[in-house]
Amino acid sequence: MLGGVLSHCRQLQTGVAYSLCGVLLSRLLTTTQAMSDMQAVVLQQPGGPENLSVGRVARPQLQAGEVLLKVYATAVNRADTLQRKGAYPPPKGASDILGLEAAGKVDQVGPDCKGLWKPGDRVMALLPGGGNAEFVAVDESHLMAIPAGMSYQEAAAIPEVWLTAYQLLHFVGGLQKGETVLIHAGGSGVGTAATQLSRLAGARPIITAGTPDKLQMAKDLGAVAAFNYKEGEFAQKVLDKTDGKGASVVLDCVGASFWQQNVRCLAVEGRWVLYGLLGGGAIDGDILAQVLRKRINLQGTTLRARTKEYKASLVKAFAENALPHFSPGGPVQLRPIIDRVLPLQDISQAHRCMEDNKNTGKIVLTVREEEGHAEL
42 φ, ψ to 5°? Predict the structure, then answer.
């Protein structure tokens, strides 16, 4: 296209014609650049939320088995705040743009794809990074169809936290019907998802949280009990609620500051699933002796660095067993809990909100408006 314009300009003689060609060339170059780059969250250097901004970067290039997702909404996760500080780098080969989930439309299908998706499909994506942008490349097996009637903002609140919760409960924790599961940070995205998935599995969720609003939300979502960890020890309360048996499974994103209470309120041969260290990682005490005495299974787990094959199996299991329950009409209705929706330009505010623990549920970012509305 550019060569054709240049050839046409050479045939023109007048100064006005040359001026006109200059305008055309400028517009063409601007259009070409716009088609090859995009808006995305940019981290100037590791540090505080003030280091985040929105700028223009190159669009991702599709690899074999990937599709290009036109992002309408994305979200903020605790891992994003850690990456911003330089404490949680993306896996090798992953985008260094923040964002572990996104929702939008399939824009392009890359080479060697299996025909699972086509341009225009409304989907949500589990990502190792890159979601806080206008476009993101996604492995085709890490996409899920957005249920009918669900908005992009609601869909963006699902992939990372709901798949994490599903993994913790079923792939790692082996939760069974009738068991009691103790869920820390019950007001978080993972916590609100795990509470609902526990009820779907026929289990009894008990949660801890730090504010009355978060405790009430957990009860509304089906928790059989909710305890404020700031108001005395929760371990005895869990034991009382379970007639002294304790919880069969603990989902722990806190770590060191909760370890003694976790051990105390775990059932004999209970499963302690550690997936975060918000309360630190250094422990001073006889943890091994207590783990041994109660035959506790302590397992640490993450999701972001897992293999593509593992993530594909997790997405498939969730899509088959949980995703249908986001559509109305079933005996158990699942719903993403959204604390607030902000424009992508307010990324710094979103990070501050999460780090101050002000949110109950997800913080969602709007990247562009749905059809019929002006885009960013």
Answer: -120, 130
CA quadruple 41, 44, 48, 54: dihedral, nearest 10: -30
Cβ neighbours, 10 Å, residue 12: 13
Residue whose C-alpha is closest to residue 202's, from 61, 54, 91, 332: 332
Decide: helix, strand or coil at residue 297.
strand
State yes or no: pLDDT of 322 exceeds 50: yes
What is the helix (H) or strand (E) element at residue 241, kind and residue range? Answer: helix 235-241
- Distance of alpha carbon 346 from alpha carbon 208, whole angstroms: 30
Say what percent of the chain tops pLDDT 90: 86
Asked if 5 and 21 count as a contact pair (C-beta separation under 8 A), the reply is yes
| 40: β partners | 55, 133
> Is the pLDDT higher at 29 or at 243?
243
Count of helix runs (H) and strand runs (E) in the chain: 12, 15
For the entire predicted model, the pTM comes to 0.89
Strands 204-209, 135-139: parallel, antiparallel or unpaired by DSSP? unpaired
Residue 219: exposed, middle, or buried by beta-carbon count in 10 A (0-12, 13-18, 19+)?
middle
Alpha carbon distances (Å) from 272 to 124, 173, 248: 30, 8, 8
Closest CA to 297 of 322, 341, 263, 246: 263
Quickly state the pLDDT bin for 372 (edges 50, 70, 90).
low
What b/e readout covers 15-50, taking b as 16+ CB neighbours within 10 angstroms? eeeeeebeeeeeeeeeeeeeeeebbbbbbeeeeebe
Asked if 103 and 125 touch (Cβ cutoff 8 Å), the reply is yes
Span 103-131, average pLDDT: 98
Q: 92 exposed, middle or buried (CB, 10 Å; 0-12, 13-18, 19+)?
A: exposed
Asked whether 88 and 155 are in contact (CB, 8 A), the reply is no
φ, ψ of residue 95 in degrees (nearest 5): -60, 145
